[in-house]
Design a protein that fits this description.
The chain is an alpha/beta fold. The chain folds into two domains: 13-49; 66-159, 2-Layer Sandwich (Alpha-Beta Plaits). It is built from three helices and five strands.
Amino acid sequence: MEKIKKTTNKPVDIKTSTNNLFLNIAIFILVTLIVFMLYSIYVKLTTPPKENNSFTDNQNVSEIIQVEVLNGCGIGGIADRFTDFLRNNKFDVVGMGNYIRFDLDETIVIDRTGNKANALAVANALGIKKENVIQQLNNDYFLDVSIVIGRDYYTLKPLK
């Protein structure tokens, strides 16, 4: 004869079932968090970085434009003349020095922050053509615009 196992209903321990419920909820939350983090890593690794190489025309000129003046033509004292001119025209010249070479034919204005309006304001004040305004974003620079004076310095406003 088969023995029939008698099952008895043991009383449910409220403390144990409550602990199990909280542990199950905690496991669910942790699994959800891990899935979200893995998805975020996947998106970060598969999405190409955005490049902001284009100028936008809806930018505003800053109230204070910090400028660096670099001598790229080799004429002594030319950066001083441009610095004096810019300061008299309410630009904040924070640096002055020599460029890495002295053979630039045309003066260029370099936008360092991505706000072309600032670079165009400086170029306009100096009488530099709009085509000579370029963009080189660099987070290591703590200024808005760099000016590299070329051999065309005598045609610009500071020396007229």
